[in-house]
Specification:
The protein is mainly alpha-helical and about 70 residues long. It contains three helices and two strands, in the order ββααα. The chain is about 45% helix and about 5% strand.
């Protein structure tokens, strides 16, 4: 994904402003919780079909850069 393409956004009208993947209502924290619990990333992918693999990777890279 391009650095210009938004991956995560926060909107007070969506989950009270919780950061979510763009185009979804899937909180980014769901991915982080999955990884922290050492659950295979395929489990996240299977649970949240609306989040593309590229989005998840880009979100993790954003977090690393922050």
């Amino acid at each position: 994904m391009s650095n210009e393409t938004p991956v995560v956004h926060s909107d007070p009208e969506i989950l009270s402003g919780t950061p979510v993947f763009v185009g979804t209502r899937v909180p980014v924290r769901s991915l982080l919780t999955t990884l922290r619990a050492a659950i295979p990333s395929t489990s996240f992918s299977d649970s949240f079909l609306s989040v593309r693999r590229e989005q998840a990777i880009a979100a993790l890279e954003l977090g690393r850069e922050a």
